[in-house]
Structure formats: C-alpha cells, structure tokens
Amino acid sequence: MTYSLNRPTECTPQHPSKTHRTTAVAHAVQPFKLQVKQIGLPVANQALTFAQASVSIGRDERNDVLLRNGLCRVSRHHALIHQYQGRFWLMDQGSKNATWLNGYCLKKARPYPLRHGDCLTVGDYKLCFMLEEIFASPLQAAGIGSENPEDTA
After folding, report:
1. Which residues have a Cβ under 8 Å from the Cβ of 90 and sit 6 or more positions away?
2. Staple 123 to which of 74, 99, 118, 152, CB 3.0 to 4.6 Å?
3. SS3 of 49, please?
4. Residue 77: which of 64, 112, 52 has the closest Cα?
5. Which of 27-36, 73-82, 98-107 is the least confident region?
6. In this structure, are residues 86 and 27 in contact, taking their beta carbons and an 8 Å threshold?
7. pLDDT tens for each residue of 50-89
8. Where are the beta strands (DSSP E) in 39-86?
9. Distance set, CA 130 to CA 12, 47, 66, 125 (Å)
10. Which 8-state DSSP code applies to residue 88?
11. Which residue stretches of 19-74 are H helix?
C-alpha cells in the first residue's frame, strides 16, 4: 500500500539510488506506525500503519511513503525501514540531503536500529516510529539503549 503526502512541486528529478529490500524474513512481520508531519506547517500529524517487511520512503511514486514538497529536500529513494531477525532497521538510501535519526545524521547505506518512539527527519518531514506497546520488547519499553544510533550499530 502506498501513502502519499503531496504538496505542489516543481522539483527537478534526481538520480535514483539503488533500493535494497529484504527478500527473506525469518521472523513474523510486526506491524508499526509512522506519525508523519511536515515541519513548519500547522497540519495535524498523519498516522500510517504498516504490516510489511520493508517500507520505502521518498518522493518517487513507487515508494510506500510518498513525500513531496516544493523544496526538493526529499530524494526519490530517500530511506528504507525494514525488519530483520525481529528488529527494525533504518537505512539512508544515498539521499542528497541525508536522513536524520533523533537528531543524528545517518551515514549512507548503513543500517541503524529503530526503537519505539524514535523520530527520523527526511527533508521537511518528521516521521515518528511507533510500535504498539504489546509489540515493544521489554528493553525498548524501558527505554534502555544508547541515544546515539552510532553506538548501537
């Protein structure tokens, strides 16, 4: 299922980066939600629910989360959230303007663990990652772990 957050745009197309998708998942797929808000606009958050192994984020029509804006800060294939071995991971797909996780700039093409309550910034959008409490692991529910994604990768 694809979700679109559209705003009129006159952006110049960027070259797509390679999209990496997991092909096999050893664990059952856990549903999660993304609260999406465009920064600087007084528009209410939009809650998107997913129950699939990989969710792509970007401004290309083929993404699961389609983010468009007039400032061209979102790449065609910007980021990817995927589940692997029962954990959630976030990876910047070689975007021009970077992906940020809890205020930390991610290195390109490197997976970073996602926890309940983590917030990522993609261009002019803030996306908060949420698991239902029943799906959160005891460590995630207790808030145990490093605030810096670099320390846990």
Report:
1. 79, 80, 81, 99, 101, 106, 111, 112, 113, 114, 118, 120, 129
2. 74
3. strand
4. 64
5. 27-36
6. yes
7. 999 999 999 999 999 999 876 778 999 999 999 998 899 9
8. 46-50, 54-58, 65-67, 79-84
9. 33, 10, 19, 16
10. E
11. none
